[in-house]
Amino acid sequence: MRALLVSHFYSDPEHRGKLRALAGQGVDMLVAIPGGAAGLDSGVRLTPIPAVGDPETPEFLRWSAPALRRVISDFHPDLIQVEESPASAVAAAVASTARKMSIPYVLFSWESLPGRRGLLEQRRYRSALRHAAGVVGGNRIALALLKEQAPSALSAVLPQTGISPAPPALRDAGHRGLGLGFIGRLVPERGAETLLLACGQLLGPWMLTVAGTGPEQEPLEALAQRLGLASRIRWLGGIPRTELGAVWNDLDCLVVPSRETSTWVERTSPALLDAMARGVVPIVTRAGALPEIVGDAGIVVDDTETLAMALQELVAEPERLVPLAQRARQRILEEFVDSAVAHRTLAYWGEVVARHKSHEGHVAERQ
Asked: Please, which of 91, 106, 225, 283 could form a disulfide with 81 given CB 3.0 to 4.6 Å?
């Protein structure tokens, strides 16, 4: 299969794991990125498209439509996948060219809230989706929004990229009690307050490690003082993901107690995926896409009270952690590593191409 991907996301080599795995599975991969230089990355060909705008906000870059059309015409792929907003000029240019050349195209989106779009954006959004052969949501919420405008397109939920899991965390034998972790920006929607209030109800040994900073840090530290929890909490401040290695060894569970708001929803969580890959038990609220990431490999709670109950059970019965940790890591290996994501993507692409060819055959017969 010859596949063309169009996305600024793959300008970063660290994001190309899925692409390398697809190339390794026999796909002739060409990736169009804004600017940069042509190159080859483990079987993945990169073709730069001239673009203008602020590189710091790549989602708003203005790609050269003529250059995109030239790449599509020269490469003539079996399928095109656009991983830019369906309302963008990039998606509109690809959709128009693909329709003229009778090439099936797939639109990917992470957008998990109904978008507020201007007239032109809304027109592009509807047109691109109306003619799409397939739609892919980064989560079920995003897919549902896409299907509102593309009910007949072949649909799937697929991660945009996979991960390369590190070895399982090695729990510090000298650490006593349930090791809890919170990793993320300290803002109200991340729900750190919910976690502290739940911890305030626990009986027995536990420790909480907080890695992150933000405007809520001082109020949260004051809350911990009022609840009498200060001696049980480590505040590490902001830590790059690449430097979290030692932190994982102190954790039995990662708690992600996100809250949905009218303007924000948790569409994915890299920290949660990292934790599960290391065999750290995930505990999440029913916010956004978190429950579908965890599946049956962790604990899903509704509010502060149910979170406190779940944590108390783990404090009282720590032996429950082992099978949960094993299931969490296994789920990542089966569903979220680069090779697994590539395999699922290729299977979906095969269905899209086969369906398109069947449709084209029926049209030719009627003519």
From this structure: 106
CA distance 205 to 232: 9
Q: What is the mean pLDDT of each run of 10 residues along the chain (367 residues)?
A: 97 95 97 93 96 88 95 97 96 96 97 87 94 97 96 96 86 75 95 97 96 96 96 92 86 95 90 95 94 95 97 96 95 96 98 89 56
Q: Which CATH code of 3.40.1080.10, 3.20.20.140, 3.40.50.2000, 3.30.420.270 fits the domain covering 178-335?
A: 3.40.50.2000
Q: Do residues 44 and 31 touch, judged by C-beta distance below 8 A?
A: yes
Domain 2-162+338-366, what architecture?
3-Layer(aba) Sandwich (3.40)
> Per the structure block, which two tokens stand in for 26?
């026999």
Tell me how many degrees the CA angle 271-256-196 measures, rounded to the nearest 5. Answer: 130
Domains 2-162+338-366 and 178-335 share a fold: yes
Which amino acid is present at 11?
S
Helix (H, G, I), strand (E, B) or coil at 282: strand
What does the alpha-carbon distance between residue 137 and residue 109 come to, in Å, rounded to a whole number?
A: 5
Domain borders along the chain are: 2-162+338-366, 178-335
What phi and psi, each to the nearest 5 degrees, are found at residue 179? -95, 110
Strand-pairing partners, residue 45, are: 30, 40
